[in-house]
């Protein structure tokens, strides 16, 4: 393992957050904070109980507001560069949970971000980004995000854009290259300014006003978090430094990457047919042993098994997930049987989700285009 872990906010490569040693090093190297056992028990969600939320910056501000029954802001969204997948569902599941705790919610359909930060072969025009936004918004609505909480970057009011341009004066290129590396481009610069504006504009007096805010991200996005916290202190608005919670990555179906629409063969897309998802899961990396005899003797390794990880991230039936873990780890459940469990779960989810998405499409078109 290298002495330092590099974070790249722009690719599907990601540190192995299923590895506790890697997580410990990430926390130490980047100055993140961890949740106490008491905090994990207090927040009644599978992401806390199963260790899927691994760290935070400034969550104590949010914790205090929740305890005092006072409002706080949460902001998240999706860069409109491709179809949504199970990794996006993780963000939305946490978005909905925080809303239930009293958050004032902002969900961005980042169509401009999706266009300017991606190559033309992926998103060739802003019009294409808007079409992707319609698809993304219909997914978000189907997953439970309310229409009133959704905004589209290209349709924000003038004050948002004034603010985004104001942010550009607070950075130098040397600072940005130090944060993001030599692959930093003008398009990515524009996307970043909008990302910072998405997080910070919520505290302008024209919106919710200064108060603690939180955004859920993968740890690979920590360069953005550090940059936006730094810039918040340089602005003349009495902003509260934005807080962040960090997810362990929804693993790709193969080792070494997070789920990404850039690699659809190893990602469960929310638009996949049950048959397509079945094939992907059948081909996914297994934590089973090389032979049945060896598997019965030594047991499987659910921590690296991709079928199990789908259930760990998305199945709310605690008893079922625990039973599957124990049976697979003991060797009494085979890799094929575990994959069948995940296939059945995903097929049922996709069928229900896609029916809801179809009903939400007209609303999504109105949100993005009218």
Tell me about this structure:
It is a single chain. The chain is an alpha/beta fold and 370 residues long. The chain folds into two domains: 20-247, 3-Layer(aba) Sandwich (Rossmann fold); 264-369, Tyrosyl-Transfer RNA Synthetase (Orthogonal Bundle). It is built from 16 helices and six strands. It has a six-stranded mixed beta sheet, sandwiched between helices. The protein is globular. 44% of the residues are buried.
What descriptors fit this protein?
six-stranded mixed β-sheet, alpha/beta, 6 strands, 9% strand, Tyrosyl-Transfer RNA Synthetase
Count of discrete structural domains: 2
Portion of residues in beta strands equals 5-15%
Write out the CATH superfamily name of the largest domain: HUPs
How many strands? 6
Low-pLDDT segments, ≥5 res:
none
Structural class: alpha/beta
The strands making up the biggest β-sheet line up spatially as 1-6-5-2-3-4
The CATH topology of the largest domain is: Rossmann fold
Give the termini separation: 51 Å
**Rounded Rg:** 21 Å
Helicity, as a percent range: 40-55%
CATH architecture of the largest domain: 3-Layer(aba) Sandwich
Please write the string of helix (H) and strand (E) elements: HHHEHEHEHHEHHHEHEHHHHH
Major sheet summary line: 6 strands, mixed
What is the approximate shape? globular
The CATH class of the largest domain turns out to be Alpha Beta
* Overall pLDDT: 91
């Amino acid at each position: 393992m290298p002495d330092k872990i590099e974070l790249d906010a722009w690719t599907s490569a990601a540190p192995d957050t299923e590895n506790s040693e890697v997580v410990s090093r990430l926390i130490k190297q980047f100055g993140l904070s961890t949740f106490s056992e008491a905090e994990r028990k207090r927040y009644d969600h599978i992401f806390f109980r199963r260790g899927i939320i691994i760290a935070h910056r400034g969550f104590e501000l949010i914790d205090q507001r929740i305890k005092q029954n006072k409002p706080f802001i949460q902001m998240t969204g999706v860069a409109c560069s491709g179809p949504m997948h199970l990794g996006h569902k993780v963000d939305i599941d946490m978005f909905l949970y925080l809303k239930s705790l009293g958050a004032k919610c902002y969900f961005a359909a980042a169509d401009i971000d999706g266009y300017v930060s991606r190559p033309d072969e992926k998103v060739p025009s802003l019009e294409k980004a808007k079409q992707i936004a319609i698809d993304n918004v219909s997914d978000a609505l189907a997953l439970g995000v309310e229409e009133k909480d959704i905004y589209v970057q290209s349709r924000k009011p003038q004050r948002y854009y004034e603010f985004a341009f104001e942010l550009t004066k607070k950075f130098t290129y040397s600072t940005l290259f130090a944060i993001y590396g030599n692959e930093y481009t003008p398009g990515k610069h524009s996307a970043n300014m909008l990302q910072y504006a998405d997080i910070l504009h919520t505290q302008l007096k024209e919106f919710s006003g200064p108060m603690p805010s939180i955004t859920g991200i993968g740890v690979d996005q920590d360069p953005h978090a550090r940059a936006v916290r730094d810039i918040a202190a340089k602005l003349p608005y009495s902003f509260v430094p934005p807080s962040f919670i960090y997810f362990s990555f929804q693993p790709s179906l193969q080792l070494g990457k997070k789920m990404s629409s850039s690699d659809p063969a190893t990602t469960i897309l929310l638009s996949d047919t049950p048959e397509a998802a079945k094939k992907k899961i059948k081909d996914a990396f297994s934590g089973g042993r090389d032979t049945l005899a060896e598997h019965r003797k030594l047991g499987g390794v659910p921590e690296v098994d991709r079928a199990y990880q789908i259930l760990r991230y998305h199945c709310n039936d605690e008893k079922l997930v625990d039973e599957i873990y124990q049976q697979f780890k003991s060797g009494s459940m085979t890799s094929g049987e575990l994959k069948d469990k995940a296939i059945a779960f995903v097929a049922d989810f996709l069928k229900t989700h896609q029916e809801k998405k179809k009903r939400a499409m007209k609303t999504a078109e109105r949100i993005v285009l009218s």
